[in-house]
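Protocol step 4 of 6: structure prediction from sequence.
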Amino acid sequence: MDKQMIQENQATRVINQKISVGGHINTYINFAMQQNYVPIIRNIVITNESQESINNLTVKVNFEPAFAKEFTYNIQCIEAGKNVEVSPVPISLSTEFLYSLTEKMVGNIFIDMYEGEEKIYEYCENVELLTYDQWTGLRFMPEFIAAFVTPNHPVINEIVKIGAKYLAQWGKQPLFTGYQTNNPNNVKLQMAAIYAALMESQIVYNNPPAGYEVVGQRVRMPHMVMEAKEGTCLDLTVLYTACLEAVGLNPLIIFVKGHAYAGCHLEQETFADVAEDDLASIEKRIVKGSEELLLVECTDFVVGKNIDFEHAIKHGLDHLINRDEFICAVDIKRTRGSGIRPIPVMVRNVDTAQNGVDGGNLNTVANGVDGLNKGNCIDEFGQFNSEFIAPPSELVIREMADLPEGEQNITKQRVWERKLLDFSLRNSLLNFRPRKNSFQILTADLAGLEDKLSEGKEFKVLELPSDCTIPVMDSKMYEVENHKDLLNAIATEEFKNNRIRTFMTPQDLAVNLKSIYRAAKVSIEENGTNTLFLALGFLRWYETELSEKPRYAPIVLVPIELVRSVKNGGYVIRSRQEDAQINITLLEYLRQIFGIKINGLDPLPEDEHGIDLQLVFHTIRKAIMDKKNWNIEDIAYVGLFSFGQFVMWNDIRNRADELAKNKVVSSLIDGKMTWEPEVAPVTLEELDENVKPDMMAVPLSADSSQLVAIARAAKGESFVLHGPPGTGKSQTITNMIANALYNGKSVLFVAEKMAALNVVKKRLTGIGLAPFCLEIHSNKTSKSSVLNQLNNVLEVGRIKSPAEYEATANKLFELRNGLNAVMEAVHMMRDYGKSFYDVVSFFEDRKDYKGRIEIPQSMESAKATDIATWQEAIREYAVALSDVGSYETNPLKGYKGTEYSIELREQLGNDIVAILEKIALSSNSFNELRAWADLDGFEDRITIDELINIEALLCAEGPVVRKLIFANEFDRIAGLISATVKDGMEFNNLDAEIRNTFEDSVFMFDVNDAMLQYKKAEIKWFLPKFFAKNKLKKELMIHAKNPSIITRGNLYSYYEKLSNHLRLNINICHISEEVIDILGELFKEKATDWQLVLNALNKATMVRSFLENVSEIKKESYVQALEAYGVSKDVKVLENIGVLKNFDIELNGFTAKYSIDVSGLACETSWLASLANRMEGYRDNLSILKNWITLQQKASKLYELNIPYVHTAWEQGRVDGTNALDAFICNLYYLFMLKTIRDDHRLKNFQGKQYEDMINMYSEFIDEYKNITINELVARLSANVPASNSAAVATSELGILKKAIKSNGRMLSIRKLFDDIPTLLRKICPCMLMSPISVAQYIDPTFPKFDLVIFDEASQIPTSSAVGTIARGENVVVVGDPKQLPPTSFFNSNRVDEDNMENEDLESLLDDCLSISMPQEYLKWHYRSRHESLITYSNIQYYENKLYTFPSPKDMVSAVEYVPVEGFYDKGKTKHNVAEAEAVVAEIIRRLKDKKLREDSIGVVTFSSVQQNLIDDLLSVEFAKYPELEEYDRNSKEPLFIKNLENVQGDERDVILFSIGYGPDKNGKVSMNFGPLNRDGGWRRLNVAISRARKNMIVYSTLKPEHVDLSRTRAEGVAGLKGFLEFAMRGKSALVQKSDNIIKNKDLFVEGLTKAIKELGLEADCNIGSSEFKMDIGIVDSENPGKYLLGILLDGENSKSISTAKDRFVSIPGVLEGLGWKLMRVWVLEWVDEPNKVLDEIKLEVERVKEERKKAEEARLAEAAKLEENLEVTDVVEDNSSTDNTVEETNTVNIGGLVFQRDDAAVKTAAVPYEHYQIEKTYAPEFFYEPEAMSVIVALAKNILATEAPISKRALYRKLIGAFGISRLGSRLEAVLENAMLRIEKKETVENGVVFYWLVDQDPCNYQGYRVDNSTENMKRSMDDVASVEIINALMEVLDEQISLPKEDLIRETAKKFGYTRLGTIIDSSISYSIDVAISKNIIAVNEMGRYEEI
C-alpha cells in the first residue's frame, strides 16, 4: 500500500521552516516484492519554502532493522520557491534478510536532510516486513499473487507426470503440448489431466482466513500443499495454475468475495491488463458454444468431493451468477509480461527441516512428493481407483468465420435509413424498459425458438408456472440465473408442447396481452407497419465508462403477430413470415457514437433452420470485447418496438426496389441524373408565344418566372425551384397546384413545418379550392378532422362552368398578341443586325452628326455583315485619321500612295527635287506660249492642257477657215461640205477612169437611153436578145479607145459609170452658195482641191472640238494664234509646247509612280506655282509620310467596300477621326429608321393613346379572367364529386366513405379508409397537403401515385425524410432556397458517416437535388421589401444580383439604418449587450406609443439566444409599466416577435430591429467568435435574418465594421456580417466594388431622354434601381429632393428584358404603383415622330401629379381633423340597423368566401323514359302472308324504329307479328320480316349474338344516355334487348356516382338504373357483357382492389 508522506505527524520533526517534503512510501515489503523490483520509496519531493536558495543539501535514508542499505543523495541547489524531485529512489533491499523472514515484523525508515552539516529535516515511517510467502491481498497490487505461481517448482513436475498418465489413459499422447495444436478441446483435455492428477493426490480443503482476499494470507507453496495434504482455495488455485503454466497454458486466478478459483485461456491469448475487474470481459469469453475461457473450481478436486472436471467447470461458472460478488481476475501470463516473476522456492530437507533455511540452499525433493499415493484409487469400498476418472467431454465450439470487415454495398438507401434512426434514450430500440407493451418470455434456447417460429409453429403464451418460486417483479428484467436449471427445465418442457411461459401472473398477463394486441393492430391500420417483434438477446451497454446504470437494447427482432385463440382462449404468437432483422438502430448507434463497427449482420446471417443466432451474438461479443461491463443477455421479450420516425424508416427499409423505380430517387441514389427530360423545358420566351391563357389556370397573380415553373410542372417535369426570400414561393405553389388540378392531375404538397403548409392552404382556400385539398400535416391527425374535410367536399355539389370562359381566354390571347406585336416590332432583330429601338437610340444619341456624311438611299438595304465590315474598316480609318489631322491643312494631301518604305521615301525626295526643276523650266515655256497666244492672265492647269493639246492643231494639215470654225450650224454645213468633197473626189476618180477608156465623145453618149434599151433586150427571147445587145455594144464601141474591151458582159457596167459621172457633174455644178461662201477661195468648181477642202474641214472640226472646253474669252485668241502659226510656222511655239508636254508626261509618271493626286490644283490660278508649292510641301514633310500612307491604306479599303463617303466627308472637312464612325452609323441608322417605319405596318400605324388603351383593356381582361378561371377550376373539380343526391352503395367507395362519416370512423383508421377509397379520394381530393411523416403514416405505398409532388422549404427537409414521399409521385418539384437555413433539429442526433462519405446526404433534400444536376428554375421577382435597399445586400452578396427587385420612390434614401450604440459585450460572463438591448426596447416602446408608427409590425432579431432573452426580459419590464401597449401588440394582426438567427426563418415584419450583441468587451477587445455565424453555413443564417423586413431595418450595434478582422477568421458568415454593417452604415456605396451593378446594355435613348428632360429645368435620374430591373427615368420631387415625383417607363431595353406582356404592362406597373410610384409611359415611336410633343406631355404630367398630390394632402389633413373631432366623442354608437338573418334559398354555394353557381344540369341523370310505339290498328293473322301486307309491315317497322331505335331485331319482330295477332315467331314468319327489313334504310350492329337496328342518323359509337322502360313487368323490354352502349352509359353513371364497385354491385346498381329490382341470368349476362365491352374500349378498368372504376 502506498502512503503519501505528510509534512507534519508524530514521526516528523521540522528543524526549521526552510523546506517541506513530500513523496510516496510503500508500507509493505516482502521477498516477492523485492524480487519484482517494487520500490519501497517511489519518490521524494523537496520544496524550498524560504526566500533564499538552499545550497549543498544532503538527503539520507536509513533502515531499522537493516533490511536495506543506507541511501544518500546530494542536491547542489534549490532556488527559492522551487522544488526538486528525487525519483527514482534506488534503495537496495537485503535479499537474504527478506527471504529468511518466517514471521511478520515491523521496521522503520528514517529520512534526514542536511544543509551542509546542519540537519534541517527528519522523518520516520513504520514499514511492515512480511514473510517471504505472504501475499498482501487485493488491496495492494493484487497481481502479485502471480509471484506465488511457481511453474518451475520440483513438485509441479511430479504432478505433471501424473497428469500425462491420465492423457495416456484417455487414449491420447502422454504429452502436454500447450497451445501447439490450436485446438480448444486439447487445452481442455490438458486441464482435465492436471485436475485428475491433483484429484488423485487426495488433498484436504482448509477454510481460508476471513477477509483473506483483502488483507492477504500466507500462501502454501506446492511442496507444502503436497506434504501437508491440505490447502485453502487460494493454495489449491495457485497450485493448479502453476501446473497449467508449467505445461504451457495461460491460467487465471479468479477472485470473488471470500473465494478464489482458477481459469484458463483456451487460445493463446491474454487480457489487456494484468488484473481484469470487468466481469463482462470474462462472461463474453465463457459463452457456451464459443468458449474462449474455462473456469475451474479448484476445491472440487479435494478429498471427499469426488467431483469430476465437467462439474468443476460448471461450479466455476456458477460463481459468476451473482455479479456483485466478482472482484477481479489475475492473468498469470500477462503478469509475466509486466515483470512479475515466480519467487524462488524454499524446500527444506528432512534432516534440516527443524533448523530453518539451510544456508539459503534450495534443494529439490529427490524421491518425489512425500506421501503421494501412487496407484491407489478410492472405489466404492473407499479405495482410490484412477480408472474412475473419465476424460472430459468435448467442447462444441462452432467454427464461426469472421463476417466481412468492410460493410458491403452501403447504398444511399442504407444511409437514408440511418439518418432516420432515433438515437435518443426514449427509443426502446436503444434503451429498452419493460412496460405494459412488452413481456419477457421464459426460454432455454433462443435460437431454437426462432427456428420453430420460422418453421411456422405457433406458441401459446402462458403465465408464470405455479411450480416456479421466482418472485414476480414488474419493473425490471428478470435475471433468474439463480434458479437457472429449474427454469431451463420448465422452458424446455413447455417448448416441446408449443407453449411459452412468461414471468407474469395470469391477471397481469391478460391485461398486458390485450394492450399489446390492440396496439399492434392500430399500428398496422394507422401506419401500415408492424411494430410487434420478438426480441432475441439484449445488449447490456453503458453510456460512458463512468456510467453505473446499464441500458438494454434488443439485438434480433423477429416480426410476429399476436393472435387471439378463440378455440383455446388466450393468445398465441406466430411469425409474420417476414424477414427477421438486426436492430439497425443499435448497430448505427454503436458505429456512430462508440466507433464500434459490426459488419455482416444486415441482412442477418442464416443457417439451415433460420437465423444463425449464435453467429450474430458471437460477432457482437467480439466487437464489444473491449467495452467494460458490456455483454449480451440471453433473454427474450415480446414487445412493440418503434420510434418517432419509424414509419418513414420502415417505408424506406421495406420498399427498396420500389423506391429505386422512381426517377428522382434513382438519381439521388446514383448521385447523378438518371433520366432525360421527356419534353423540352418551357422558357420565358415561349410563355406568350406558345402558352395560351386557357392552357393554364393561374388564379393568383404570377410573374413570368413563376409562370415558367408552373408550366414546367404542368408538362410533367421534375425540377428544383429556387425561391429566394420574398419571391412568392407560396403563391407559386398555390398556382402550381391549381394548374395541375385544372389539368386533371393529382398533387401531393409536402411541408415539414405546419406554418409553411398553412400559408399555402390559406391561399388555396382563398381561391375556392379548400374542399378539394385534404390537409393531414400531423401524424396524429384526428379521424374526425379528416372525415369533416371529406364530408365538406361531398356537400359542394356540381359548380356551373362559366360560359364566357373560352371567349375571354381568346380575347385575352388576342390582346396579348397585339401588345407583343408592337414590342416585337420595336425590338426584333432586323436584317441590318439591330432592332429598330437600337438604331433609334444610337441616332438620338448622335443626331448632331446627321448630314455630315452623305449616304445614298441604296444603302438602306445593307445587311448586318456589311455593317460590321464597314464599322471595322471605318474604325481603323478613324484611328489613322487621328495621326493625320485635317485634310486641308495637311502638307501631304493629294498623296494617294499605299506602300511605304524608307527607300521609297528617299526616292520620293529625289524625284520631288527633279520635278521642281522641271516646273521651273516649264514655267518659262508656258509664259512664252501665253504671250504667243495672247493669253495674258491665264496660268491655270487648264490653259497648260489647252496649249499642250493645241499642238495637234498646229501640226494638222489644212488651212484655218475661220467661217467654218465659227459657223453656227457647223454640223449641217460640215455635212454639206463633206458630201460635196466626197462627190468631188469620186467625180475626179471616175472622170479620170472614163477618159482613160473612152474618147471625149463618149460624154455626148446618151447613156440613159442605152440603159433602157439594154433592159428591154434582157426580157427578149434568146436571139432577139442577142442581136439587141450586140447592137448596143457596137454603139458604145464607137467611143472606146480600145473597142475590144467592150463586151456584152461588161457593157452594162460601163453604162453605170457613165451614168454616175453625169450625176456627180450635175451635183458639183449645183453646190449651195452658203458652202461656196464659207469655203471662199478653196472652192473652184471642178478644179477644186477636194483634199485641201477636206483638210480644212477636219481641222475646223478639231479646232471646234478643242474650243468646246475653252472659255469664250480665249477662243478668239486660240484661232488667231492658229491662223498666225499657219502663216509664220514659228518653230519656237512647237518647242515650248514640247517642253510642257514632256513635263506633263514626267509629272504623270511621277504622280502615277507615287499615286499622287494633284487634280485638286487644277482650279488654282497659278497651277505651276501651286504645284511647286505642293511638291515643296512634300519635300519638307517626308517625316510624316508613313502616317499619311497608313491613312491612304485605310481609305483604299473604304473604296474597296464602296463606302468612299466617309473619306470624302473627311476631305471635305465634315468629319474627323473622333466622329467619323459615329457620323457614318448615325446617318446609316437614320436610313434604317425611315425604312423600318415605312416597311413595318406595326410601326407605321402606331398610335400611343390607342396602344395605352389596349394595355388598360388587357389589364381589365386579366382581372376578369382570373375570377373566371377560379370559377372554371372549381367547376372542373366539382365535376368529379359524386352527386349529393345519389344513393351510395354500401360496398362502393362512396358508400364506405359515407358510412365512415356517419359513424365518425368507428373501427376504421385513416390509413384503412384511404386504402378502401383510393379512387374516390383521388377524385374528390386530388390535392393532399401533408408532412413527410404523415405521408408515410397515412399513404400506403400501393396508393395510386400522385402526378406531382411538391416540397416546400426543401432546404429544411433531410433527404432521408423525403425519399419515401418522392417515390409516391411521378414527378417532383423541390422548392427552397439553398442560400438559407439547412435542417437543424433533424440532424442533431445523426453524425456524418465519414466511412461512407461518398454516400452521405448533403445538408438537405434541396442540396442533394442540386448536386445531381436536377433541372432548375428560379423565382426572380422579390415582393416582400417595400424598399429595395432592404434586399439589396442579400441580392448582391448571396444571389449574384439576379433577383428582380423594384426601386421605391424613396430610393435615394436607404431603409437600412445603422444606429451605433455606446456599450460593450459582456464576453465570458453573461454574454449580454445591455446597451443594445435597452436601445432596442426603447425603440419598440417609442413605436408602440406613436399612433402612426405602431401601424407597422415589429420584429426583433438577435445573433444569440442570450441576447434574445435579455431583450425579452427588458421588454417585459417596460410592458409592466405600459400594459396598454402590450395589450395593443397582443391584439395586433402581427404581434411583435423576438427571435434569433436560428429560428427566425419564415417570419417577416414591417420593421426589423437588429441587435448584433457581439462587439468590444469592457477592455475594447473584439473576439472573432460571432456564435452561429462562425459555423459552416453561418452566412445562410445571416441571409435569412437580413431579409425579414418589409419597410425598414434598424441595426443597433456596438460593433463597427472595422472591428471585424477577417484575417483572424475564415468564416463566410463573419465576412458577410462585416459587409452588412458597412452597407448599413454607407448604403449602396459600400457595394460598388462588390456588385455587378452595371447596366449590361446601355440604353442611349433613356439617357438622351433624361438629358432632354433636364433641359426642361427638371431634375431627373435614369436607370434607377440596384437589380436587373431599372426604373427608366425618375423625375425628382423638387419639394422633396429625397423622393421621386414621377417615374417614366419606356419601351426600351428594360422593357425588352421583360419576357411577357403581363409582366411588362400589368404586373410591374402594379408593383411599382404599390410601392408609391406615379407612372407615365413614353413610346419611342412617338418620340421619333414628335419629340417636342413628348416633352410637353412630360411637363404636363409633372404638373398634374403635383396638383394631385396637393389635393391628396389637403384631403388627408381634412380627414385627420375630422378624425380628431370624432375622437372627442367617447360614447359608442350602437348599430341599430336590423340584420335579416333569413337565408334565401338560392342555387349557390359559398367556398372560402367565394360564391359559385351550382349546375343543376350537371347532376341530372342521363336516363330518359323508354317510348313504345303505339300500334293503333291490328290485323288478322292470315293477312300477314298477303302481298298487300308487305307495305303495312314495312310502314310499321319504320314507325317502330323511329320511336324505339336502337331496338333488338328480336324485340322488333315481336312487335311486328303482335300487330297481326301472332304470338310465336317461326321461320316462315321470319322470312317475311327479313324481306320487309331489306326495304328499310337502317344501321345494324351485332352484340353478344343479338342484332340491333339503328336509325341512319344514329351513331352507335357515340350514343348518349340510356332509356328506362317504366312499363309493367310483362311489357318491359328484356335486358338482352338493350344495346350495350346504353348499358355502358348507365354503368358510367353508376361509377360516376359510386366511384368504384365490385362487379356484383356494379351489375346490381346498373340494373336498378333500368328499373330492375331483381337480378336474373339474362340481366347478369347482359350487363357482364357490356362491362367487358367497356373494359375492351378502355372506358372502365379494374383497380388493384378488384373494383371497377372509370378510366
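Step 5 (inspection) to follow. Residues 1731-1767 form the longest helix (37 residues).
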